[in-house]
Design brief:
Largest sheet: 7 strands, mixed
Distance between the termini: 15 Å
CATH architecture of the largest domain: Roll
Structural class: alpha+beta
CATH class of the largest domain: Alpha Beta
Shape: globular
Protein name: HNH nuclease domain-containing protein
Order of helices and strands: EHEHEEEEHEHHHHHEHEHEEHHH
Radius of gyration: 22 Å
Strand content: 15-25%
InterPro entries: HNH_nuc (IPR003615)
Number of strands: 11
Pfam family, one: HNH_2
Number of helices: 13
Length: 331
């Protein structure tokens, strides 16, 4: 898959995002409306290139190192964007400085005709940053025009850098923070705290509750309990209550590989049981994991079944799956 090019306007949060090696946005505007610029964080993929624009200049070039995932507003933002929703998309990006920095206004004669007609990051005539524009898709020609005559560490950019903000690392940090809050919650009984914390690893009461509903892996059909993981549909860290974290309807029994695909959002399920495969999953990787049928379905092989269904889900499960498709599934 060819890399895409992006442009981010982040005057308010550039220092935090450059230092932290990421981009972050709310999921919606403050009025609840969807934003194309925010949705673009979910469209960016590892290997994509990003131009960082702040204080009227392009100052950094970045390379996306992982797919975006749900994360709370970074603490280092402090009061910046006080009206933003507290839950958003975090996109890991490795940044390297651009020297000298580039003023788009000085190049607007060349840049203007190359900018997208809709959702442009800057005005096609003045070169000023467009209001509400955050992460915008740009053409390779825009990128080449900006970086012509500049220097940046291309070797580091191609390698992606040593970005520590992977999904696994951030997920562990967020779950640790949730666990601390649970332990400090004076309203929860100690037995409930213990059950909720065990549920983080798919153990204890949560697993027992899931096993009263699910009998096998929805993806592979494996029935041996020793080979199955009790996996939350709505992630443990995103649950709002102990009840959600222990609810058997919020769980599936999955083999380890299927659990990883589901947890990371590379697969999901429709309410009727149709297996949904992310467009970002490589066919060869699916085959190497042993999911030949998924690979065939995802890439439209003639011999593949029209739809792979895992059995319909109950209404309570459907509610959790809707959140998985919205907040976890990689589009």
């Amino acid at each position: 898959m060819m890399s895409r090019f992006w442009w981010v306007n982040h005057n308010q949060t550039a220092r935090q995002e450059i230092d932290g090696q990421y981009l972050w946005s709310p999921k919606t505007e403050s009025n609840g409306a969807r934003s194309e610029f925010y949705n673009n964080l979910r469209r960016a993929a590892p290997g994509d290139i990003v131009l960082s624009y702040s204080e009227q200049a392009v100052r950094y070039v970045g390379r996306v190192t992982d797919f975006a995932f749900t994360a709370p507003k970074p603490e280092e933002f402090k009061n910046t964007g006080a009206y933003w929703n507290q839950e958003g998309w975090l996109l890991p990006v490795y940044w390297t400085p651009l020297a000298p920095t580039v003023s788009p206004k000085a190049l607007i004669g060349k840049l203007g005709p190359l900018l997208p007609a809709r959702y442009s990051p800057i005005h096609q005539t003045t070169g000023s940053g467009n209001q509400k524009a955050y992460l915008a898709s740009i053409s390779p020609d825009v990128f080449r025009t900006i970086v012509a005559g500049t220097a940046f560490n291309g070797d580091a950019l191609l390698r992606g850098g040593a970005n520590s903000l992977t999904y696994e690392v951030v997920n562990e940090m967020l779950e640790d923070a949730v666990e601390r809050r649970i332990l400090e919650d004076m309203q929860l009984e100690e037995t409930v705290k213990k059950s909720v914390i065990q549920a983080r690893r798919g153990q204890g009461k949560f697993r027992a509750n899931v096993e009263t509903i699910e009998r096998s892996c929805r993806l592979t059909g494996v029935t041996n309990p020793a080979l199955l993981i009790a996996s939350h549909i709505k992630p443990w860290r995103l649950c709002r209550s102990a009840q959600e974290r222990l609810d058997g309807m919020n769980g599936l029994l999955l083999t380890p590989d299927a659990d990883h695909l589901f947890d990371r959002g590379f697969i999901s399920f429709a309410d009727d049981g149709e297996v949904l495969v992310s467009s970002r999953v490589d066919k060869t990787d699916l085959q190497r994991l042993g999911f030949e049928q998924l690979a065939m379905q995802r890439f439209g092989f003639a011999e593949a079944p029209a739809v792979w269904r895992a059995g319909a889900f109950s209404p309570p499960q459907q509610g959790y799956l809707a959140q998985h498709r919205t907040d976890v599934f990689v589009i």
